[in-house]
Design goal:
The structure is a single chain. This protein is mainly β. Helix content is 0%, strand content 57%. The protein is built from no helices and 11 strands. The strands form 2 sheets. Strands 2, 4, 5, 6, 9, 10 and 11 form a 7-stranded mixed sheet that branches. A 4-stranded antiparallel sheet has the order 1-3-8-7, with no helix packed on it.
Length: 113
């Protein structure tokens, strides 16, 4: 059974940083994309960033380029999203997903002063 569990969300002031983690278990594909996707009631789902296995190719939506960094640790089956210079518009429920087929439960990120 594939499980994805996000952690690391929270409340941060504008300009601050957070790192999200996604622990993956029970997954055996050898080539795939993993993504961070966020949801807000007003904008719906936004595909924020992705990373490809193998090879490490990455994707970032324009609004987070230069601020967010996606990475993975294959030895511990963890996916990360380092978020710097956070803005109020980054406030959302953040999910990790494997190609949209498997999803975590989400981690809330709130950027507010």
């Amino acid at each position: 059974q594939v499980q994805l569990v996000e952690s690391g969300g929270g409340l941060v002031q504008p300009g601050g940083s957070l790192r999200l983690s996604c622990a993956v278990s029970g997954f055996t594909w050898t080539t795939y994309w993993m993504y961070w996707v966020r949801h807000t009631p007003g904008k719906g789902l936004e595909w924020v960033s992705g990373i490809y296995t193998p090879g490490g190719g990455t994707y970032y939506r324009d609004s987070v380029k230069g601020r967010f960094t996606i990475s993975r640790d294959d030895t511990t089956n963890l996916l990360y999203l380092q978020m710097n210079n956070l803005k109020p518009e980054d406030t959302a429920l953040y999910y990790c997903t494997i190609q949209g087929d498997f999803w975590g439960q989400g981690a809330q990120v709130t950027v507010s002063s």
